[in-house]
Specification:
This protein is 25% helix and 18% strand. The chain has helices spanning 21-27, 89-95, 98-104, 122-130, 154-160, 182-195, 226-241, 253-261, 280-294, 312-327, 361-370, 467-470, 492-497; strands at residues 2-4, 68-69, 75-76, 80-87, 109-116, 136-141, 146-152, 165-168, 201-205, 247-251, 378-380, 385-387, 413-415, 419-420, 429-432, 436-443, 457-458, 461-464, 475-482, 499-504.
Length: 506
């Protein structure tokens, strides 16, 4: 186990008239029992769900979108939440900031698990679960940092915790194709239900439509139309998910994202046309999970994963988009925030965005102060990077530059040179932003590989370089990648800015 952390404006309101006013109000609740005291998931054919909706007729505080209540009737967060996602890269996007969002919203104990397999469909999950295949990357977060275990089985993850919620989702390739659900979905839910703790309730994660200019190979499934993709996904939820009464709620990430696209942000919320951007896009998805699961307003969440990249105006869009999605999860609500500032004056995913490590100084200063360190006693190191390359200190003393087809192709930037410990001594500070990760590589001498255990990946936050870590080595270098790893070839320069080094003043 290794430490880890774990993008044309749509102005047309896509109205749907399938739901009555009463049903629409009920849909705003999304969850239907207090998260603090979860009860077993309803069984098929029971009367725990409304006849025309998956929303049970509940009068609990969570069911009315007000969270749980204390003895005074004041809405409050559940004391603990344990959430397991059976997902893919889209669940990673949704959960990246979820731990800190839940904590900021008042949840005292948070345990998150993400069974990740890239691009995984319901059919693939069914195969993996039914045959208990050790194919998943299992990301777990119990303290604010994501930990990864490779080659994991569903049977191990589902029994590891007394999960309150288990989420399901379809791959984006076919999430709007009715034929991809049916018996496959029912069979998968059957298997998960048989293995899950009695406490577990099932949720459906309604993932988002592609960016309008997306080049995703599956976009033709939706006539290369974002609006068409949105409508097709809604149709599948109504026809395939709502009849499955074991789902107690829907997390309307798609609608939150679509709502935000009508704001001044426009259609800029993905990093590659389909995965959410590392900042506001992921934040909106995480905030949607928070409100859908707790029943609480997104307005109470103060956590900002990157103040340098997510402005107050962008936070306002996120809160509005999520609030509107809670009220109307199956229809787009046009944003009232048509003017505002981006974190750096431009969309955060923009490959042309020019960043400097100095742009993050105030953010780093606050992080250091929270740890009892005065950053004024340090100097920012201006390090140069090499793209599509990485160091591997236990294998050699020069960089590796992977070729097309390699699993690490276009996934890393690294320091152009090794730095002596005279230049970066013990006591130096490393800062890493959420959604990014780095690995320190140490060398006994400039041209001598390391004979010990290669250091693991480092997560977000501040790390103090120690004598113990250096272990007598005389040189140091590092690699930077996104978390989870992905193609960062269009934002190499931005990636390098997400790991900053401060050296003590001499």
């Amino acid at each position: 186990m290794k430490g880890m952390t774990q993008p044309d404006c749509i102005t047309k309101k896509m109205k749907r008239n399938r739901l009555s006013v009463t049903a629409a109000v009920l849909l705003s609740t999304l969850l239907f029992a207090s998260c603090g005291t979860p009860s077993p998931a309803p069984q098929p054919g029971t009367s725990d769900a409304a006849s025309s909706d998956i929303i049970p007729e509940s009068t609990s505080s969570a069911a009315t979108g007000e969270g749980s209540s204390d003895s005074t009737g004041t809405a409050s967060a559940p004391s603990s939440l344990r959430i397991l996602a059976i997902g893919n890269s889209f669940s990673t996007d949704c959960m990246q900031y979820l731990y800190n969002i839940l904590k900021s919203g008042g949840v005292k104990e948070v345990v998150l698990g993400n069974l990740y397999y890239g691009g995984c469909s319901l059919a693939q999950h069914l195969d993996f679960v039914s045959n208990n295949k050790p194919v998943y990357k299992y990301y777990k977060n119990v303290s604010g940092n994501w930990e990864l275990t490779e080659n994991y089985r569903f049977s191990d993850a589902v029994k590891e915790e007394k999960w309150d919620y288990i989420t399901f989702q379809q791959t984006s390739k076919t999430c709007g194709l009715e034929a991809s659900y049916g018996k496959t979905l029912t069979s998968l839910v059957d298997l998960v239900e048989a293995a899950a703790p009695d406490s577990a309730k099932f949720l459906w994660n309604m993932t988002w439509a592609y960016q309008q200019d997306s080049t995703h190979s599956s976009f033709p499934n939706y006539q290369k139309s974002q609006e068409k993709m949105y409508d097709m996904i809604i149709d599948c939820v109504e026809k395939c998910i709502k009849p499955e009464k074991r789902f107690v709620g829907i997390i309307p990430c798609m609608t939150s994202i679509q709502n935000a696209r009508t704001s001044f942000l426009g259609d800029t919320l993905t990093r590659d046309g389909f995965h959410l951007d590392y900042y506001i896009g992921r934040y909106i998805a995480g905030l949607t999970w928070f409100s859908a699961i707790t029943g609480l307003s997104p307005d109470i969440v103060t956590y900002n994963p990157s103040p340098s990249m997510i402005s107050d105006d962008m936070l306002a869009v996120a809160r509005e988009a999520v609030s509107d999605a809670m009220k109307t999860p199956y229809a787009v609500t046009k944003s009232r925030i048509t003017d505002g500032k981006h974190g750096d004056g431009t969309p955060t995913h923009d490959p042309t965005l020019s960043l400097s490590p100095a742009d993050f100084y105030e953010q780093d200063k606050k992080t250091a102060a929270a740890a009892g360190t005065d950053l004024s006693g340090y100097k920012l190191l201006e390090w140069e990077y090499t793209e599509n390359s990485y160091w591997f200190c236990t294998k050699g003393t020069s960089v590796t530059t992977p070729k097309a087809g390699a699993s690490t192709y276009r996934q890393n930037v690294c320091t152009k040179v090794k730095y002596s410990t005279a230049d970066i001594p013990a006591g130096a500070l490393f800062f890493c932003d959420s959604g990014w990760q780095y690995r320190l590589e140490i060398f006994p001498a400039e041209n001598q590989k390391y004979s010990g255990t290669r250091p693991g990946m480092m997560s977000s936050g501040m790390f103090v370089l120690s004598e113990k870590f250096l272990d007598g080595c005389g040189y140091i270098a590092w690699n930077v990648s996104s978390d989870p790893k992905s193609d960062i070839s269009d934002i190499y320069a931005q990636a390098a800015c997400h790991v900053r080094v401060y050296v003590p003043n001499k």
